[in-house]
Batch of 2 targets.
Target 1
Amino acid sequence: MHAAGPKNPLHGITLEMMVTQLVAHYGWEMLGRMIQINCFNWNPSIKSSLTFLRRTPWARAKVEALYLDSLPDMQPKQEGETPE
């Protein structure tokens, strides 16, 4: 688990927010390829995924790691900013 505090990038971010943002960014199919767990590949839903991830620390850690790695890509671009 990560340290609590405002400098932690996961501070204030719920598991539901992480999964919702990852699904919006990648879609279920790509998310299921990136993290190969059944809740993302077989009849996926936010509710079933949250149930599994809350009970399975290793899977939650993978979701948190992917979320942290994906944060720069998911940040909205500022006006006038050009993509790299």
Note: The mean pLDDT is 88.
Target 2
Amino acid sequence: MALPSRSDGLLAQIPDSLTDLRGPVDGKVALPPHLSWSGPREYDLADLRLRLSMYRMVITGGGRVDAERYLNARHLTTDWPLLRKGLGPGHRRAWEHKLALGMLP
């Protein structure tokens, strides 16, 4: 029996629209333990490296509600060219397909 793919169910975990991403634009964000169970829990959004790390954790470890709460559409679209490089192909393709992120200039 084959194991299920890691990307099974990914599309259901992604919000339907970029407008659903209402996370903070600035300040510090403390992630809950189910997203940041190891290492720092607080991320300064002004620091690109920390913001990318936080967004990666939410995208790969969170669900739809987490994405809507912690991700900001403007940051996601601006940072996508860098952020996508740190995601596995399943997450990258799913997010690009569902939110048309692959079509960004």
Note: Strands lie at 28-30, 42-44.
